[in-house]
Amino acid sequence: MNRVNRICRHPLWRDCMEQIRGLEQDRVFCRHDLEHLLAVGRLAYIENLERGLGVDKELIYAAALLHDAGRHLQYTQNIPHDQAGARLAGEIMADCGFSPEEIAQVQDAILHHRRRDTDSGGCAASW
């Protein structure tokens, strides 16, 4: 999980999280903070195990940490957070040693995490 730890130390990811924290300081429910991101990762990993999907744990946690990274751009520039998050994920993951294939897989999961038309109760990741 070394590369996931590198995401958490990445200056761009940290800046995104700080901006989101500031913009959501008055939000009552579901702040998009580290607690939320790790909860998403844990739930996705459990679903991965239960469904026998075989997705690498590091990719699941990378996607979880990055899926809401674009929230500040949604709030400030009206860019859908999944689109902004996928773009940010590409830059951050490349810096953290992920392969182009891994980056594409995580970007796809981020771009589809808001869909509800799947058989997995809302988890629309392509894996």
Q: Could you characterize what this model shows?
A:
This protein has 127 residues and is mainly α. 65% of the residues lie in helices and 0% in strands. It has helices at residues 2-9, 11-23, 34-51, 57-66, 71-77, 81-95, 100-111. Helix 3 (34-51) runs antiparallel to helix 4 (57-66), helix 5 packs across helix 6 (81-95) and helix 6 (81-95) packs antiparallel against helix 7 (100-111). The two termini are 19 Å apart. The relative contact order is 0.16. The model is unreliable at 117-127 (pLDDT under 50).
Write the layout of secondary structure elements.
Layout: H1 2-9, H2 11-23, H3 34-51, H4 57-66, H5 71-77, H6 81-95, H7 100-111
Helix pairs in contact: 1-4, 3-4, 4-7, 5-6, 6-7
Key words describing this protein structure:
single chain; mainly alpha; disordered C terminus
Number of helices: 7
* Fraction in helix: 55-70%
Main sheet makeup: none
Number of strand segments: 0
Taking all Cα atoms into account, the compactness measure Rg is: 14 Å
Q: β content, as a range?
A: under 5%
On the 0 to 100 scale, the average pLDDT is: 88
Residue runs with pLDDT of under 50 for 5 or more positions: 117-127
The ordered string of helix (H) and strand (E) elements is HHHHHHH
C-alpha termini separation: 19 Å
Shape: globular
Report the structural category: mainly alpha
